[in-house]
Design goal:
It holds the Pfam family ketoacyl-synt. InterPro entries: Beta-ketoacyl_synthase, Ketoacyl_synth_N, Thiolase-like. GO terms for molecular function: 3-oxoacyl-[acyl-carrier-protein] synthase activity. One of its GO terms (cellular component) is cytosol. This protein has helices at about 50, 55-70, 90-100, 110-115, 120-130, 145-155, 175-180, 235-250, 275-280, 290-295, 300-315, and strands at about 5-10, 30, 80-85, 135, 160-170, 190, 210-215, 225-235, 260-265, 285-290, 335-340, 345-350. By secondary structure, it is of the alpha/beta class. It has two domains: about 5-215, Thiolase/Chalcone synthase (Peroxisomal Thiolase, Chain A, domain 1), CATH 3.40.47.10; about 225-350, 3-Layer(aba) Sandwich (Peroxisomal Thiolase, Chain A, domain 1). It has a ten-stranded mixed β-sheet, with helices on both faces. Helix 2 crosses helix 5 (about 120-130) and helix 8 (about 235-250) packs across helix 9 (about 275-280). It is globular and about 65 Å long.
C-alpha cells in the first residue's frame, strides 16, 4: 500500500491560526464559557454577495479549504471529505424557529437548504467545480477521524492522489443554551491558564474549521506522514493504554518511541481522568502537550490537535502555551494524538516526520 502524507494544513479557530506563517505566537486570552472563532477577512476569499448568504460555519469551511488548497499548490482534488458533529446549526435553528413562528406556513427554503450537514462540502465543491467523490461524516466526536480514515484508505489503495479533508463546527445560540442546561458547558467563566484547574463539570465550547490536503505524493513542503487512524466508540479507562500499545505495535513502535503525545484535556472534572491516567503511567516519560485551553471543545476540535501535531513536526518547535509537562522533546518526529469526549468516541492519530 502507498504511504499517505499531509501536504498542507489550514485552521480557523478561536486563536489567530489562519495565517500559517505564525505558530501560536500571539495568543488571545479568553475568560469565557463559550468562545467564537477568530475570523479572517472573509471578503478576501469569498465574493461579498455570496458571503452574505452563508452562515458562519460555511464561510469558515470554504475559506479554510481554500487556504489548504493554496498551500498545497493545487486547483482541484480527487475527493472532498468532511466531518461535522452538529452540522450547520445556525441555519437549522433558523428554519425550526421559522416553522414555529409562522405556524408551519409561508416558509422560505433557504435556511433549510443550507441546514444539512453536507452543505460545507457541497459549497467547497461548487467553488472549485469539483464533481469527484464528496462525502460528509456525522459521527459525533470522531467525525473528523472518520473522514481522515476514509481518505487514508483511498490513498493507500491508489484510488485517489489528492484529497481535501476537514472538520467544521459552528455555534448555534439555542443549541448552546441546551448544552448549558445539561451541564456540558462550564457553569462559570474560566481563563485559558486555569481551564485544567477549574475543578468543575463541562467544557468551554467553541467553533472552528480545520482542513488538510492529504496525498500519496510526498513533497518537500509536506508536514508529516500519516501512519494510523483508529477510533473506538467506548473504552474503559484502564483499556486506553492497551489500545494505544496495540496501535503502536501495528506500526512497529513502542510508547517510548513517541517524541510527543497530544492530549485532549478540556478541564471537565468528570472525564479528564482518561488523560490523567495516561500522563501518570504510559506517558510519564513522554513530552505531553494539549490545546483545548486555547481553542475550546467541539465535535471536530480533534482536527486542531492534528493541525498542532503537524506544525510541531514541520517546525520542530513546541509553543510554550501548549506544554502539559516539562519534559523536553528536542527532535519531535513521531507524535500520537489522543482524544475522547465525555468518555466516548475515542480516537488515535499517529504522525511521523517524512
Amino acid at each position: 500500500m502507498k504511504k499517505v502524507y499531509i501536504n498542507s494544513i489550514a485552521s480557523i479557530s478561536p486563536q489567530k491560526t489562519f495565517e500559517n506563517a505564525s505558530f501560536l505566537d500571539d495568543i488571545i486570552e479568553y475568560n469565557e464559557t463559550v468562545i467564537s472563532a477568530f475570523d479572517p477577512n472573509y471578503k478576501e476569499h469569498i465574493p461579498p454577495a455570496a458571503a452574505r448568504r452563508m452562515a458562519k460555519g460555511i464561510k469558515m469551511g470554504v475559506v479554510a479549504s481554500k487556504l489548504a488548497m493554496k498551500e498545497a499548490g493545487i486547483g482541484t482534488v480527487d475527493a472532498i471529505i468532511t466531518g461535522t458533529g452538529m452540522g450547520c446549526m445556525i441555519d437549522s435553528e433558523k428554519f425550526v424557529s421559522a416553522i414555529i413562528d409562522n405556524n408551519e406556513q409561508y416558509l422560505t427554503p433557504t435556511s433549510f437548504i443550507q441546514s444539512t450537514h453536507n452543505t460545507v462540502a457541497g459549497q467547497i465543491a461548487l467553488g472549485m467545480e469539483c464533481k469527484a467523490y464528496n462525502f460528509t461524516y456525522v459521527h459525533a466526536a470522531i467525525s473528523f477521524e472518520s473522514a481522515l480514515l476514509d481518505a487514508k484508505m483511498q490513498l493507500e489503495n491508489d484510488e485517489a492522489n489528492n484529497i481535501l479533508v476537514g472538520g467544521v463546527e459552528e455555534l448555534g445560540a439555542h443549541t448552546t443554551d441546551v448544552h448549558r442546561v445539561i451541564n456540558h458547558i462550564k457553569p462559570e467563566a474560566v481563563t485559558i491558564s486555569e481551564v485544567l484547574n477549574s475543578n468543575t463539570e463541562g467544557a468551554v465550547f467553541s467553533e472552528g474549521a480545520n482542513f488538510f490536503v492529504v496525498s500519496n505524493d510526498r513533497k518537500e513542503s509536506s508536514y508529516a506522514e500519516l501512519l494510523a487512524v483508529e477510533t473506538y466508540n467506548t473504552l474503559e479507562k484502564d483499556k486506553v493504554s492497551e489500545a494505544i500499545k496495540s496501535v503502536l505495535k501495528e506500526n512497529n513502535l513502542k510508547p517510548e518511541d513517541l517524541d510527543v503525545v497530544v492530549l485532549g484535556n478540556n478541564g471537565d472534572v468528570e472525564f479528564d481522568g482518561y488523560y490523567n491516567q495516561l500522563s501518570k503511567n504510559i506517558f510519564k516519560n513522554t513530552k505531553q502537550v494539549y490545546y483545548k485551553h486555547l481553542v475550546g471543545e467541539n465535535n471536530t476540535v480533534s482536527a486542531f490537535g492534528v493541525w498542532l501535531a503537524s506544525k510541531i513536526i514541520k517546525t520542530q518547535q513546541i509553543p510554550a502555551m501548549v506544554n502539559l509537562n516539562d519534559i523536553e522533546a528536542t527532535e519531535p518526529n513521531i507524535i500520537l494524538c489522543y482524544n475522547q469526549y465525555r468518555g466516548e468516541n475515542h480516537s488515535l492519530v499517529l504522525l511521523k516526520k517524512c
